[in-house]
Amino acid sequence: MKDRYLKFVNSPFGASVARSIGLPRPEVLRRYRADQPEFGGMAAIGAGPSPALFETLIDILGALGMTGVAHESARGWLPLANSRGAMSGRFEPQAPDASASERVQALIFDGTGIAESTQLRSLYGFFHDGIRSVAKSGRIIVLGRPPGSCADPHAATAQHALEGMTRSLGKEARSGISSNLLQVAPGADIEATLRFFLSPRSAYVSGQAVRIDAAPAAPPAAKPADWRRPLEGRRALVTGAARGIGASIAGVLASQGAHVIGLDVPPAKDALDQTMLAIEDASPSGGAHAALVADIAAPGASAEIAAALAAMGGIDIVVHNAGITKDRTIAKMTREAWDSVIDINLSAQERIDDALLAQGVLREGGRIIGVSSISGIAGNLGQTNYATSKAGVIGRVRSMAPVLRTRGITINAVAPGFIETQMTARMPLGLREAGRRMNSMSQGGQPVDVGETVAWLASPGCTGITGNVVRVCGQSLIGA
Ligand code: NAD
């Protein structure tokens, strides 16, 4: 489904019409393209007292070819950067009419050492000076600690306060700029996550707080030889892969090196075959992908799926994407509409996971990613069945994370907002336009935005991320 308004207001004629009558002008978001550099330019660094992540930041920015320039709040950055041989300098805030090349690609604030509410003022200093200096489709990243990891209630309070700051910045920044909070536990590995949030791959993820724990007992994952293909050698199952978001998830996982098994219902067999062929054509590891035809709600399906995957040698990544809607207000909803939505969207996921885990088909270090929805967070008129199922996906992620941690398996969910697919194309026009515009990016997301987010959560570097729900919603007002 095309967003004609977005296209119109970004044409020369449309832009002048929008300016003259004051229409909103959503930015065309910069997304990842293999033929364009993923990273570059400057990141302005700010900090509260006792920042813990400067060394890590200096090393990661260096690996990305980005220059960290220090705001006056980031005391200690310059000598440390110099001692590590990193490119650096002082941050000069730019005037609002500064050219693109004078702007910074990111504002990064290390708030890990903030231990009481009075120290939150350091946020004001940095973002007051810096917010106008960020390039279009730039990034704001605040680094803090998980409040639950702070022994002192004053520190936990101040760390929780970072959420309000980060979310408000996302609403104020505009121009396709995202703002996210990474709650980093001491000893956690943040490289894969920092890369994702600095990259155009996270274009439609904003207003999120992601908790990164130190990896459990298992040794830390080796860094990928090629960061564009961190899933090399992993096998991934994607349900509902014939079209829409599932096809995109399958495509992104394959482009990052995974061997993908796409699953869909018998009536979607032709579409599934076409999707998998297209993925094979686009993928240099061609030939390793497969189509699996099954209705996940059919009796015995979970055992059959587990047997098929066991015969292939096991699986590393499971993405529960298949889902349906049967919308009606509860008074008018049939029992069948209730039962089938709960069964396909939630109970079938449980049955498949149970079968894969019981037989050890999901290998150690595995990843489970459920596709929830902002309806599961906010509830929605006419979607009691759907919202119940999608809230259940969130409950499952939170309750299973501690159980799976001992096996080195992570479980997380993505919660898409309004994504341009056949599902949303069927919505009435008024609702569709509202869904598209009621977020900080003033536009719907693309299936690839969900695919990129799933691929990040599936990556070996995300061992410390489990039990999280990451919204892919452009910071939608719904459920915010
Ligand atoms: P879609 O209807 O375009 O695709 C869903 C796919 O799942 C289809 O290929 C379908 O055949 C498959 N499927 C359905 N029932 C199945 C079953 N019993 N067994 C196997 N496969 C089955 O939907 P989409 O928009 O791509 O949505 C994908 C997921 O994202 C769903 O879980 C949906 O709830 C969720 N989601 C979508 C949006 C959005 O805006 N499109 C927003 C939030 C969440």
TrEMBL record:
Q: What is its EC number?
A: 1.1.1.100
The enzyme's first-digit EC class, named in words, is oxidoreductase
Keyword field contains Oxidoreductase:
yes
Molecular function terms, GO-annotated: 3-oxoacyl-[acyl-carrier-protein] reductase (NADPH) activity
Q: Name one Pfam family in it.
A: adh_short_C2
UniProt xrefs under SUPFAM superfamilies: NAD(P)-binding Rossmann-fold domains
Q: Where is the Ketoreductase domain?
A: 234-417
**Record bears the keyword Oxidoreductase:** yes
Source superkingdom: Bacteria
**Which controlled-vocabulary keywords does the entry list?**
Oxidoreductase
Entry similarity comment: Belongs to the short-chain dehydrogenases/reductases (SDR) family.
Protein name per the record = 3-ketoacyl-ACP reductase
Per the UniProt record, the source organism is Caballeronia glathei
